[in-house]
Amino acid sequence: MKRFVLTPAAKADLAEIAAFIGRDNPRAAGRVLAEIRNAMRRLASSPRMGHLREDLVEEPVRFWPVYSYLILYRPETRPLEILRVLHGARDVRSILQED
Questions:
Q1: 10 burial level (CB within 10 Å; 0-12, 13-18, 19+)
Q2: What are the angstrom distances between the C-alpha of 36 and each of 3, 53, 91, 97, 98?
Q3: pLDDT digit string (tens) for 34-66?
Q4: CB neighbours (10 Å) of residue 24?
Q5: Span 17-28, pLDDT tens digits
Q6: Residue 1 above 70 pLDDT?
Q7: Cα–Cα distance for residue pair 45/92, rounded to 1 Å
Q8: What total number of domains does the chain contain?
């Protein structure tokens, strides 16, 4: 059984992150993606590690930072459902409202 699954939006987020960082430094892009995936595995083992952001979303979605990125996930799902991976400088509230 998979420990976590990515929504289509999360897959697109990771591809966008890889492309953006990879333009300047492909090795750094690989390192960042590896750290994000390692964090996802840790979250799957301990899904309550993240924090709630009721100011951003009313659902019981948790957030976990990796570098400048936020992993958004549903802690009660098995396998753990990764909803998005967003840069912290983006307007996360607006993005989530669009989803």
A1: buried
A2: 14, 20, 20, 23, 23
A3: 999 999 999 999 999 999 998 888 888 999 999
A4: 8
A5: 999 999 999 999
A6: no
A7: 25
A8: 1
Tell me what pLDDT residue 96 has. 86
- Cα–Cα dist 34/37, whole Å: 5
Question: Burial code of 54-70, b = ≥16 C-beta within 10 A, e = fewer?
Answer: eebbeeebbbbebeebb
Residue 15 is encoded by which pair of tokens? 């591809």
Q: Which residue from 96, 9, 5 is spatially nearest to 54, judged by alpha carbons?
A: 96
Look up the CATH number of the domain holding residue 94: 3.30.2310.20
Q: What is the pTM of this model?
A: 0.93
CB atoms within 10 A of CB 26: 11
* Rounded mean pLDDT, 28-32: 98
Give the full edge-to-edge strand order of the sheet including 4-6. 4-6, 80-87, 69-74, 62-66, 51-52
Q: Residue 11's domain spans which residues?
A: 4-98
Residue 46 is which amino acid? S
